[in-house]
Every structure is written in C-alpha cells, then in structure tokens.
Design goal:
Layout: E1 2-8, E2 13-19, E3 25-29, H1 35-45, E4 49-54, H2 60-63, H3 66-71, E5 75-79, H4 83-87, E6 109-111, E7 116-119, E8 122-128, E9 137-141, E10 146-150, E11 153-154, E12 157-158, H5 168-179, E13 187-190, E14 196-197, H6 198-204
Parallel strand pairs: 3-4, 4-5, 5-6, 10-13
Antiparallel strand pairs: 1-2, 2-3, 7-8, 8-9, 9-10, 11-12, 13-14
Length: 210
C-alpha cells in the first residue's frame, strides 16, 4: 500500500490517499476542505480514479469535501454514530470556523466494529475508537503495519474530548483497548501532525500510558 499525506488548511487536517500498486483505483481517508482538488494531480499523474472515501469521523474538518468526493464517484464509508454530522454538517456550526458552508454528504456504507473492509485492492480491519467523536473509527492494515486513526490519538497527545460528543473516559478506554492492542511496530497515521508508532505512544504518551 502506498500512502500519500496531504495536510490541508485551515487546521492542517491530514487527508491520506491510499493506493495498491496493481490497481487503477484509489482510496481517500478523510476529506478536509479542498481535499479533492489537492489530490487531483496525484491521481492524474498515476492514471488513477478515486472510488472510496473512508471517514474516520464526522467532524467538519475531516468531512467538508465529502460531498465533492462523492460527486466525483467515490462511495462514502462512515460510522452511523456520526451520520447527522456528515449528512447535516451545518449542525456543527457552533464549533466550525466562521463563514464555512459545508455541503451534506450521503453515507453509502455504514462501518461496524470488527468489520473487514476491502476496497481498491486494500484490506482493513475497522475498529471503533469513540471518545473524541462518537463515530471515530480507525482503519488497520495488518499487511502494511499501518493504522489510520483520525483524532483518537496523535504523536504525544490525544484527541480533544471536550467537543460535542466527546468523553474522556471513553477515549482513554478506546486508546487502551483498540489502539494499544495493535502490534507495537504499527505506524499510526493520525488526523493531525506526524506519524508515530503504537510502541512509542504506549511508552511516552503523556495522556495515556500503555
């Protein structure tokens, strides 16, 4: 699996473009504002088409371009707990940056914990990691030792539990039971900031130690 990272404004939210070498289709994990335009040159350069958008959760900075991606042919995958934020995103207006007008995006496929998801020649285990957002999920690719985790955990930090739908005890439990149980050499690709590893966060994360 090839992973290209696109940190996008206004909050440097990471969008991840995933491809398998033998395929001409591609997967996007999270769609910050302007994501489709940002990845278009990479798709064109390699003759690929976007066929799936996997949303780690429904916060506006992760799903703002979901409607545009869907209009371009990508099926949208997300957890049902964040359905209202994705299909009616202006419900988040109180904690969005002012002046944004985000189009609603229909969810085509609802994700469930433990589901094995196969898209564009890639295979993921879906793990539910609520606490930052009710529908936060991670996508774990055992073959490539990679976990795309949304805002559940970052390098040396964790997602905010004080936003609507957040819950600190639930987030701590999610990290311990769903992230720290992955192999230590798993590379964590978070929703913001640089990559880290499960082993590093178990040993050094100041908020949740393993």
């Amino acid at each position: 699996m090839q992973i290209q990272t696109f940190p996008l404004p206004p909050l440097d939210t990471n969008a991840y473009l995933l491809t398998a070498s033998s395929r001409d289709d591609a997967v996007l994990v999270d769609a910050p504002p302007g994501a489709l335009a940002a990845i278009a040159p990479a798709l064109a350069k390699n003759g690929r088409r976007l066929t799936a958008l996997l949303l780690t959760h429904g916060h506006w900075d992760h799903m703002a371009d979901a409607a545009a991606c869907r209009a371009a042919g990508a099926a949208v995958y997300a957890h049902a707990a964040d359905r209202d934020w994705i299909e009616h995103p202006m419900q988040q207006a109180d904690f969005m940056l002012p002046g944004l007008d985000i189009a609603p995006a229909k969810i085509d496929h609802f994700l469930t914990p433990g589901q094995v998801l196969e898209v564009a020649g890639l295979r993921f285990e879906v793990r539910h990691v609520p606490g930052h957002a009710p529908g936060n999920v991670l996508f774990y690719c055992a073959e490539d030792k990679a976990a795309l985790v949304g805002d559940a955990i970052f390098a040396g930090a964790v997602g905010r539990p004080d936003l609507p739908g957040g819950d600190w005890p639930q987030l701590e439990k999610s990290i311990r039971t769903q992230i720290y149980t992955l192999p230590g050499d798993t590379v964590i690709h978070p929703g913001h900031g640089p990559t880290t590893t499960v082993a590093r966060e178990r040993a050094t994360n100041m908020f949740v130690r393993g």
